[in-house]
Amino acid sequence: MRVPINTITPDTPSAEVIGWAHEIRDLGGLAFLLIRDRTGIIQVTVPKKKVAPEIAETIRAISRESVVRVTGMVKPEGKAPGGRELIPDAIEIVSLSATPLPLDVAEKVPAELDTRLDNRFLDARRPRVSAIFKIRNAVQHATRNFFFDNGFIEINTSKIVAAATEGGTELFPIAYFEKEAFLNQSPQLYKQMMMAAGFEKVYEIGPIFRAEEHNTTKHLNEATSIDIEVSFTDHIGVMQTLEDLVRDIYQFVDKTCSDAIADLGLDSFAVPEKGFPRLPYSEAIEIASAKCEEDIAYGDDIGTAAERAIGEEMGRMYFIVDWPSSIRPYYAMPYENDPEICKAFDMMHPRMELSSGAQRVHQHDLLVEQIAKKGLNPENFEFYLNPFRFGMPPHAGWGLGAERLVTTMLGLPNVREAVLFPRDRHRVVP
Ligand code: ATP
Ligand code: MG
Questions:
Q1: Which end of the chain is more exposed for a tag (fewer CB within 10 A), N or C?
Q2: Does ligand 1 come within 6 angstroms of the Cβ of 355?
Q3: In this structure, are residues 205 and 225 in contact, taking their beta carbons and an 8 Å threshold?
Q4: Quick check: CB of 223 below 6 Å from ligand 1?
């Protein structure tokens, strides 16, 4: 019976393991084989004179990264990983690996990100890489638990749409029979429609598609968005939900992923403190223009340099609130006493934006007016606008980028590290 490698201790009498040949060292009379499965590594020590001749022969035939099965006696060995070694009674090559390997799984030879992504199946055999996806798994699990416990309904909305959420050129057109269609850039309009349906609290974890030509370390053309929409609350209410969720996710990862955190070599894992500060946009701009070389003025979007400068100043997770209405989408609710600013926010990690949200406009006529003001044609939004005529409750929500959350949580240099098969300007394969 095969056992996971990390369950074998120096006291285990005997074991059967199946895994990949991580490293093979043949010193003549003595051979060492490191076997790796997803839980860890064990050293197989082969004193050739003392084992059956077939074993010595099989050892010679094993190429690195072949799948092998080994059964044998376990012995304490201080110098081996985990303080134990396996002396084989039998070795079998289950699946032979071709040579040469396109990528060194043992990481003796560093590889470029492109080579790694081209050979993602091999790259992901490295503990440091699989650790990222074990943590991403925990992030999504914690997210679903959080929402389930708080009475949210998980929804799955269509990714094939006829109109853009926000207009603009960020859409991928697709061939959809005789109609024009696109890949959705956000579930925004659908989750709002579910407020009209009376669901009150919904969330979705799904892909968003952005045809931006960016080639940056924080943009993907296909990303995963954690989206919520909540009725009978405002921007303040959903900002609190966002902070609570993010802290909850960090706590869950801290509690359940210690092995993966160690594999990543992170020496500290800090759960963000309660009470993310709320910085008005106008003050954020002042900080950015004082600290940045480039000219930044009120009414500008907060670009990468500004984001960095403000993040340095804040030194922790924070919100930027009270944005000019001119640079937020039509569905952001303007303040009654000052419609030039709106009830929109961004949640920021010191390194980058993680989430955008707002209280939404729920009044039909105001929404039509705001759509037109952005230079969009309200007629293209009829399917979306119609529900606003039949009792739309006040509501608010946000979208949180899953990859950016994982990237910043783990200090990864590039958001592509947090996606198995990233899609960017140059990459649609594998
Ligand atoms: P940015 O200004 O950084 O390009 P955005 O403001 O266009 O982002 P939103 O439309 O506000 O993005 O989307 C909400 C969240 O979804 C973002 O805060 C981010 O975490 C994530 N997100 C959006 N676009 C991308 C992308 N191209 N790649 C990775 N994550 C993204
Ligand atoms: Mg945004």
A1: N
A2: yes
A3: yes
A4: yes
pTM for this entry: 0.96
Local structure of 242: helix, strand or coil: helix
Of the residues 143, 184, 210, which should be mutated to test ligand 1's pocket, given the most ligand atoms within 8 Å of the CB? 210
Question: Given the CA of residue 398, which atom of ligand 1 is nearest to it?
Answer: 14
387: its two tokens: 């529900």
- Distance from Cα 211 to the centre of ligand 2, integer Å: 15
Average pLDDT over residues 127-131: 95
Burial class (CB within 10 angstroms; exposed 0-12, middle 13-18, buried 19+) of 317: buried
Helix ranges (H only) for 13-126 are 53-61, 113-118, 120-123
Res. 27 pLDDT band, cuts 50 70 90: very high
Give per-residue pLDDT as tens, 259-305.
999 999 998 789 999 999 999 999 999 999 999 988 999 999 999 99
